[in-house]
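COMPLEX REQUEST
Ligand: flavin mononucleotide
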Amino acid sequence: MRIIIGISGASGVVMGYHLLKALREARVETHLVVTEAAERTLACETSFRLEDLTALADVVYDLRDMAARIASGSFWSDGMVVIPCSMKTLAGIVCGYADNLLLRAADVCLKEGRKVVLVPRETPLSLVHLRNLKEAAEVGCKIVPPMLTFYGGADTVEKQIDHIIGKIFLQFGLSYKNCTSWDGR
Ligand SMILES: Cc1cc2nc3c(=O)[nH]c(=O)nc-3n(C[C@H](O)[C@H](O)[C@H](O)COP(=O)(O)O)c2cc1C
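STATUS: Structure written out below.
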């Protein structure tokens, strides 16, 4: 399995780190593109370096490299996850405004009918954000917001992130070992 991972500059870039780690453990091939704003957010919010993220991906692309493999529909993938997805990147995806490689890769996945999972992060959400999320859903994106979870013993930030990763895995028919599914009790 092969998944493109886009990390944009919303809060919670650390979720991208944990998703890359989980996909590596699940032996899924990952192709990573990170925005400049994501690098900034990573520095503001965490003690991670960009290299800590890139070391987890199989292939890493330059955001400006519009000739990269993931910029073309002939490069096959199972789809793409944008985690976290900033409101700016969301706007770019719904408008088809593909002026960087992350946006182009998402545009390509949509045109090829491949899965695009967005993990949008902003609060509160304006009407502009809500409209764009609705449009994203209408064009076929799956919206998986990083919502708080109160069941399954999710009592730490790490467990909250694990829950989101579990939900993303489900979108690709995968099961994540650190996320316990609701079993009806
Ligand atoms: C520390 C920090 C936190 C941010 N959090 C968010 C956020 O949660 N959601 C969001 O849409 N933008 C957030 N931003 C603003 C984005 O980084 C900014 O809109 C940027 O232009 C997004 O660019 P990108 O989509 O190319 O990554 C944050 C910026 C910083 C510095």
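REMARKS: Residues 8-11, 35, 37-38, 40-41, 44-45, 86-89, 121-122 surround flavin mononucleotide (CB under 6 Å). The first helix runs from residue 13 to 25.
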